[in-house]
Amino acid sequence: MNKFIALLSFMLLVSCADSSVMQPFDKSQKPAEVTIKGYSKPDIIQLRLNGTPVSINGNTSYTNKIETQLNFVLDEGETDRLAIYNNETGAEVAHYNITYDNINDYKTLNFFNLPGIFLQASAVKPQVNLGKVGFEFIFPNLGEYSGTKLSGLKGVLKRENGVVLAEFDHIGKKNFTEVKIYNYFSNTVPVYLELYQPGTSTPYTGSEIIKVKIKQDMGANLIVLQERMENGALTVKGEIDVADYL
Prior knowledge:
By secondary structure, the protein is mostly beta strands. The protein has two domains: 29-119, Immunoglobulin-like (Sandwich), CATH 2.60.40; 132-244, Immunoglobulin-like. The chain has one helix at 2-22, and strands at 29-49, 52-53, 62-75, 79-86, 92-99, 108-114, 117-119, 132-138, 152-158, 164-172, 180-183, 191-196, 210-214, 219-230, 233-241. The strands form three sheets. Strands 1, 2, 3, 4, 5, 6 and 7 form a seven-stranded mixed beta sheet that branches. A hairpin with a 5-residue loop joins strand 4 and strand 5 (92-99). The radius of gyration is 27 Å and the shape is globular. The protein starts with a helix and ends in a 5-residue tail after the last strand.
């Protein structure tokens, strides 16, 4: 009888040990802290985290300046989806897949939702003295139609007569350039931005020089460049001025 009890106890002990081995350990976790600094005009938008609307100051839809901070926990292997929607139409404007491994890429999320473009970038209107003109540029869709693999271009800003007003060594896809300032001379005469491969006088498309006609306003101009196809030909427009929204 004692031998039977001893054998039974041993079997139970082995069974419990095997059971504990089979149980998975708790998944690793990371705290996620996402600071959102956005702007939308005229559209009213809504942020949703995993489908749930984000409340900002008691509102679940917002326009103009949008600032908040999201705090949540990410399990290893988990993906949390942060999306931006047009509140009126329900159409998705943009989304971000946030994971345990890439959370450091989303510490701060900057965006501008403007007519005809969604821009993932930060922008600060620079101080430009009276009687001066300041320009900054960004080229978010560089390569979309031209097919170029370049991450940035050289830009030369000129008057219509060819006089150089400013040069930009690197007009990139993700950040505005540093501001370049010159003396204001007319509210009716446009200026032209010529685009070249970095550090060269070679047109960025490799053939004809592309000139972007740009309206200059006194003070700061934060211009978004956009590749487009018009009548089968590549063109670049500079019609959106983020400074108008700041």
